[in-house]
Design goal:
Layout (H helix, E strand, L loop, with lengths): L4 H13 L4 E17 L2 E19 L2 E7 L4 H11 L14 E2 L18 H18 L3 E19 L3 E20 L2 E11 L5 H4 L2 H16 L2 E2 L3 E7 L6 H8 L4 H4 L21 E4 L20 E6 L2 E2 L6 H7 L7 E2 L8 E2 L3 E4 L6 H6 L3 E13 L5 E13 L2 E7 L1 E6 H6 L1 E4 L4 E9 L2 E9 L2 E9 L5
Parallel strand pairs: 4-6, 8-18, 9-16, 15-22
Antiparallel strand pairs: 1-2, 1-5, 2-3, 5-6, 6-7, 9-23, 10-11, 10-15, 11-12, 13-14, 16-17, 17-18, 17-19, 19-23, 20-23, 21-22
Helix pairs in contact: 1-2, 3-5
Length: 463
């Protein structure tokens, strides 16, 4: 156990005696390791072990939060005293802790990261580097990363919650650079799952490397993308980042409760095409954004956000439920004990629809197939976004034609939702990292191909 139960009980009781309406303890022990390989050699190795505790108190709708890396009886009482300066009358008593059934159904931790030698991991990356260079003589650089983390948490509160959870994460990132004369381009592939080092035995990392190299080579001859308002097909997988950023954040009660979101007050209203059903699921086995329990100790669940175009649910944490009256969804998340939790997405995606990608392409006379999206910016309040298309294809008279680069997609989440006209069959998920008020957390984005009748496309060419 990460902390003695008696110490937890005493601290929670003391917080209630001082006048808190609610008290919560979050204890965390986290191992993390990153290995980077560049230009045929190790470019950096970092390892870290962090331990600490976060204490969260509610006074009405006010949140008080403090942390310590050395939790003792005295230090925890001091934290309470720092947060609540003057004792108030309170008859609240903590509820007895309720034992939660242990479950590891969402994760795989057969090989712990520290049980696999650094030499073995470095050889793994070196082999991928050699393979990637063998794919084409146009490869000028390969940057490979192996990132791992094991987070152990204990969450207890004055309402009887007492849970422990283990969350392993392993990820491989491949960044390939190709050159041809003076031209240079990049290709990127990444995969990550809630697994230990067994991921590296199960993952087809050579195919990932080949895909990254081939993307970089395709972009060497890519033309500049056209500009204008065009029909756009957003490809599956990481294309879901637009929904995540431009719509998903607006469905979190962090913004809904204050009225800052464009989706505030729209529960039960039609906000998208009837083919659009959007999910935020914390219970997908091995997926990057999954959790047995959220960081408030609630078992996660499968939440339907939009069903057949109608807004059905928000993404709700404990304080969000207090402020809005909507039920919690097991979505209270935080980067570490250094942060108080807030409503956050988990595995967020648009569900598959009825259409084949080929048929969607045939419906477009002239437009853009956004094959791969890159980074971008978004105003989470308004949903206004600007995302780079790292690789695209022009669609002419229902046919995919030349590869283009340098495109950007500009719009708002609310407007784009309303202009989706067809949803494809082939759902694909992709790991990512999301930043917000409670820090950076692992998430999954995803979707099948989506046909949007019109998006403003930024580009340097005229067709």
């Amino acid at each position: 156990m990460l902390l003695e139960k008696s110490l937890i009980e005493n601290t929670i009781s003391y917080a209630l005696e001082k006048g808190a309406d609610f008290a919560e303890i979050f204890v965390e022990k986290k191992f993390s390791q990153s290995i980077k390989f560049l230009d045929k050699q190790v470019d950096g190795i970092s390892s870290d072990l962090d331990y600490g505790l976060g204490l969260r108190l509610f006074l009405g709708e006010e949140i008080l939060y403090a942390t310590t890396s050395r939790p003792t009886e005295n230090s925890l009482r001091d934290l309470v005293d720092q947060l609540i300066y003057r004792k108030t009358n309170s008859n609240l008593k903590p509820q007895s802790f309720l034992a939660q059934p242990e479950s590891n159904s969402l994760i795989s931790l057969n090989i712990k990261p520290w049980d696999q030698s650094l030499k073995e991991k470095i050889n793994y990356l070196s082999d991928l580097d050699s393979f990637g260079r063998s794919v084409s003589d146009k490869v000028s650089q390969l940057q490979l990363s192996m990132n791992q983390q094991v987070q152990e948490v204990l969450i207890a509160n004055s309402e009887g919650v007492f849970v422990e959870d283990v969350r392993p994460y392993s990820q491989v990132i491949i960044n390939a650079v190709a050159t041809d004369g003076g031209a240079k381009s990049q290709g990127l592939e990444r995969k990550g799952f809630m697994m230990g080092s067994e991921l590296f035995k199960n993952l087809d990392a050579k195919q990932m490397t080949k895909d990254a190299v081939e993307q970089a080579i395709r972009l060497l001859s890519a033309k500049n993308a056209p500009a204008g308002k065009l029909p756009v097909i957003l490809n599956n997988g990481f294309g879901g980042v637009i929904f995540h950023e431009a719509c998903g954040h607006g469905l979190e009660t962090t913004s809904v409760a204050t009225g800052a979101s464009v989706f505030s007050g729209k529960m039960g209203e039609k906000i998208a095409h009837e083919e659009v059903t959007a999910i935020d699921n914390g219970q997908m086995q091995y997926e990057w954004g999954s959790l047995e329990f959220d960081d408030e100790g609630m078992r996660t669940q499968n939440t339907t956000l939009i069903e057949n175009g109608v807004l059905k649910n928000y993404i709700v944490d404990k304080m969000g439920a207090i402020k809005t009256g909507y039920p919690r969804s097991g979505s209270g998340r935080r980067q570490s004990y250094h942060y108080a939790p807030a409503s956050r997405m988990r595995n967020t995606y648009i569900a598959p629809g009825p259409h084949e990608l080929e048929d969607m392409i045939k419906d477009v006379d002239y437009g853009l197939f956004a094959q791969k999206l890159g980074g971008g910016s978004v105003d989470t309040g308004t949903g206004a976004y600007n995302f780079a298309v790292t690789e695209g294809r022009i669609i002419r008279k229902g046919q995919l034609e030349e590869t283009v680069k340098g495109a950007s997609l500009i719009g708002t989440g609310f407007d784009t939702l309303s202009k989706i006209t067809k949803v494809g069959k082939d759902l694909k998920l992709s790991p990512g990292t999301c930043g917000s008020v409670s820090g950076w957390v692992p998430v999954t984005v995803g979707q099948p191909p989506l046909l949007v009748s019109e998006i403003t496309v930024g580009g340097a060419a005229n067709d």
